[in-house]
Amino acid sequence: MPRPIIVDCTGDRLTADEHQLFRDLDPYGFILFARNIQSPEQVRALVGELWDSVRRPVPILIDQEGGRVARLQAPHWRKPPPAWTFASLAEQDMDKACRAAWLNSRLIASDLAALGITVDCLPVLDLRFPDAHLIVGDRAYGTTPQQVATVGRAAAEGLMAGGVLPVIKHIPGHGRAAADSHFDLPRVDATRADLEATDFVPFALLKDMPLAMTAHIVYSAFDADAPATLSPTVIETVIRDHIGFKGVLMSDDITMKALQGPLPDLAIMSLNAGCDLALLCNASLDDRRAVLDAVPPLSRTAQIRIDRCFMTKPAKVIDSVELLAELDDLTQGVAV
Q1: Measuring CA to CA, how many Å separate 16 from each of 11, 22, 23, 53, 288?
Q2: Would residue 76 show up in a list of annotated catalytic residues for this protein?
Q3: Which residue in 126, 276, 141 sits closest to 188, CA to CA?
Q4: Is 182 an active-site residue?
Q5: How far apart (Å, rounded) are the C-alpha atoms in residues 178 and 108?
Q6: What are 11-56's pLDDT values in tens digits?
Q7: Can you list the positions of beta strands (E) in 33-164?
Q8: How far is CA 193 from CA 196, 202, 221, 224, in A?
Q9: Assuming Cys at both sites, which of 9, 20, 93, 117 could form a disulfide with 112, CB separation 3.0 to 4.6 Å?
Q10: Catalytic residue among 8, 223, 252, 253
Q11: Burial of 241 (0-12, 13-18, 19+ CB in 10 A)
Q12: What is the per-residue pLDDT across 22-34, written as a single tens digit (0 to 9) for each?
């Protein structure tokens, strides 16, 4: 039975030690970063090596949002625009913004599917707040819940039309955070009523999406001590009950500085809190081994959700040149 961990690898080829570790301890899937990517042929070969290491096809994830967060880069791939491009367009014409967001994601999906990448950590459903940390910033689809949800859904549906699964993030909302959770633990002290009227709304409106990624943020209105990723209260009360998300819940990277403690403990705590999968990135080989060795096999509940989630329809063939021309026409002159 696979372990409920999504893990990365060190370089653009799998090392012998990594291959053996994955063969022995069977992570559920893998995530790729810029350091793993050189060319289309190389990425396809690496995906094949990852599959071979666990003796089965497994989910391959990536963060290909566009703008500041794009692992696939020139000269081999188009760099997608940031989400704020579509937010700006939505202020002029919502229908055009949704069409542009769908086209952009459909083109991303075409790039990813050709490499064997099956999951994109997109869309960001966090609201953009004027006094918050810029870690969200232009990754947001807007400042209002309805706009973020509407444009975010178009982006997610564009991915799914191309056979790639979206991940809504960072549930239940990173937008108000005054710190970057890569380096510090943000604390949001907004009231329950304010959060339910704003931050949580886009996630509730996209609760039918297959996957979601948690926020490493303390929401004091629900749990004064533990960040959402490690809080049974936030996961059960907010994410599962209030928001109504029933899909596969994945932690954000547990090596981020917002979380403190031994990595095996953090992985177990996130799973015990209610995450189905834990994301482990940028760790040493020994740390990967320690985490994979410590966690229990995938739970029956998580397996049922995952089986339901990882069902995609075959993608129709597209004319990328034609779709890109339409996207460029829609977004020409849009301020970012």
Answers
A1: 12, 10, 10, 10, 15
A2: no
A3: 126
A4: yes
A5: 30
A6: 999 999 999 999 999 999 999 999 999 999 999 999 999 999 999 9
A7: 60-62, 64-66, 69-70, 119-120
A8: 5, 15, 9, 16
A9: 117
A10: 252
A11: exposed
A12: 999 999 999 999 9
